[in-house]
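= Paired protein data =
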Amino acid sequence: MTTLTVDAPPASSRRRGAIRRRQNIGWLFVTPFLVVFAAFLVFPLIYAFGMSLFSSTLATGTRFVGAENYAKAFTDPLFLGGLGRVLLYAVVMIPVQLIVALVAALVLDTLATWLSKLSRLLIFAPYAIPVVIGALMWSFLYSPRFGPAGTIFELFGMTAPNFLAADSIFYSLVNVVAWQWSGYYMIVIYAALRSIDPSLYEAARIDGANGWQIATRIKVPMISSSMIMVITFAIIGTLQFFTEPTILRSVASGALPADYTPNMYAFALAFSYSQFNYAATIAFSLGVLVFIGSFGFLFLTRKQSGLK
């Protein structure tokens, strides 16, 4: 009588099969995100880029123009003027937000009482307010006729300053954005500070370091990667400046034209003048500049951020 024996598959094959099954399960969970990501980001970007390669007018109809729209965009004084304004905002606004967030995080990191938790909540609260609602609130506060500032100045028989005038709207917007985002950046920096080993502070105190030296020579250098991340977020957000000036435009008495920022210019082209192809060109050009700016900053700070 002959006995047949069937060899079991080797252990390596079983391991590969188990790994493949786990990978398939992982892709199953990731698929919904990929579908949403493609539907609301990848496909719109492809569609916008396709639109930017055409021109549509009543006289000539729709025709393919290639890079002609991009050549026009980078010589358009309205687009370049808006781009210059957002770059100026980046130079002023990003340091303001970073300093406020860093100082608040360093102060809160030294507190160990219930006041620390309350302070974190109060500083973070403006970020929890929707941007549109926050801008509407500030439009009321800035109003020289209905805002509290105007009432206070009138009580002393003084003329209330117009925070929405052309010569002051820049700083008014800087204040709005700093108020809105500094709390979020503070939380990021504070979380990085809490991850530092406290024994380093104890060793520094034994060596005679004071609080200022611990903050500037230990804490700040050790959270440089988080600081780089915060600055990158701020660069991206500032170059895409749109919501706050758009909301304040209705009450700013002409201080904020429709082409004040590149995003506002693209919005006006599309929905006020129906120049959808050129609006797509402006939006895509701005996206490319945002990518170049953020990638260039990350490349220049790759040692501080830990990237190689």
